[in-house]
Amino acid sequence: MNTEFSKEIIGMRALNLLFYNYTTEMLNEMLSIREFKHCWENYVNLEEQTHMQIWDFFFNKISFKTQTRLLEISLKHYGEEAAKHYSTAIETDIILQEHIKKHDNLKKK
């Protein structure tokens, strides 16, 4: 497995965890960012899946500076969990590749 983008993948995973599992405390931290607060107040419908709406304005309505600040918040709260998930994914991929290789060798016999 190519690990060249491991930091980026961990960051994306941490953002997804934050957007999907935010607590009131985490939301208040995000709302302390002016752009995020503006988007939250004007574009989020609490009756719908808020994490999808946050992803939408993350990519389409806020600046790189605010994206970076949200990444920092996500890594603070979920960085360890995201890194563990990435490590587990690499280990699982190694096991899967070995399993496939074993079956390929059995088919050749």
Question: Pairing-aware structural class of the strands and helices?
Answer: mainly alpha
Strands, total number: 0
What count of helical segments does DSSP give? Answer: 5
Spatial gap, N to C terminus: 28 Å
- Describe the global form: elongated
Unreliable stretches covering 5 or more consecutive residues? none
Helix content: over 70%
Major sheet summary line: none
Amount of beta strand: under 5%
Q: What's the Cα radius of gyration?
A: 19 Å
Order of helices and strands: HHHHH
Mean pLDDT: 91
Q: What can be said about this structure in brief?
A:
The chain is 83% helix and 0% strand. The protein is built from five helices and no strands.
